[in-house]
């Protein structure tokens, strides 16, 4: 068997606690971008090509329409955002233009950036990468692979994190299709409508929450429902016993 000619970094998926710790050191821009990535399963390069009209924040769940000309595979697809990612994106929208104007002034002698950039995140991939490295260092989670000397928690782990969390709740094929893996796209879109895919995403959405984690009370609710049923049954039994006692008393009185 032929061995690979290039060593591969043994990366890993961050835990939810680690991811939250990383983002706590970030700016609004950082949180908006990385929560967008983690909740949509999109590649960073794809996200950086999105414009506002490609993201519909008025539906539930918020939908991202990815045209074929910006997707890695060349196939159009849809994905979604958590409410948490939506909140940070809206906060980013408030300061995006100020950020762009500042970037224009800072880079006018280097790359002549202009105000015509209509992307949601008007910066290059290397900016996103640099910010991620900064955040994992601040969180003291910047361990490196001893063989390749590359970071174990690199920026591409966000897609793996997305898949690991979503697959806890929804079918494998749908999670992979939402993430844009080509071999699953045709199968998913043949078997499910966009509305069904959105419904599946909503079922697993709570697993993609990072900053404002909501406790999963499903088991508790089921247990309380069972307890309520038991109480109703006990009440019915008590009512039947009381009825028998009263009937017995009436019979005794008639004998007397």
Describe the 3D structure.
It comes from marine sediment metagenome. Residues 217-244 form a coiled coil. Residues 9-202 form the Tyr recombinase domain. GO terms for molecular function: DNA binding. Keywords: Coiled coil, DNA recombination. The chain has 256 residues and is mainly alpha-helical. The chain folds into 2 domains: 16-207, Intergrase catalytic core (hpI Integrase, Chain A, Orthogonal Bundle), CATH 1.10.443; 216-255. The chain is 55% helix and 4% strand. The protein contains 10 helices and 3 strands. It has helices at 16-23, 28-40, 44-47, 83-107, 125-138, 157-166, 172-178, 182-191, 194-204, 218-255, and strands at residues 55-56, 63-66, 77-80. It has a 3-stranded antiparallel beta sheet with strand order 1-2-3, covered by helices on one side.
Task: Briefly characterize the structure.
This is Tyr recombinase domain-containing protein. The protein has 10 helices and 3 strands.
**Arithmetic mean pLDDT:** 87
Label the structural class. mainly alpha
What is the highest CATH level, the class of the largest domain?
Answer: Mainly Alpha
**Major beta sheet summary:** 3 strands, antiparallel
CATH homologous superfamily of the largest domain, by name? Intergrase catalytic core
**Beta-strand proportion:** under 5%
Strand order of the largest sheet: 1-2-3
| Low-pLDDT windows of residues | none
The counted number of beta strands is 3
H-E order: HHHEEEHHHHHHH
Q: How does the overall form come out from the CA principal axes? A: elongated
Query: Which range best describes the helical content: under 10%, 10-25%, 25-40%, 40-55%, 55-70% or over 70%?
Result: 40-55%
Which CATH architecture of the largest domain would you pick?
Answer: Orthogonal Bundle
Discrete helix count: 10
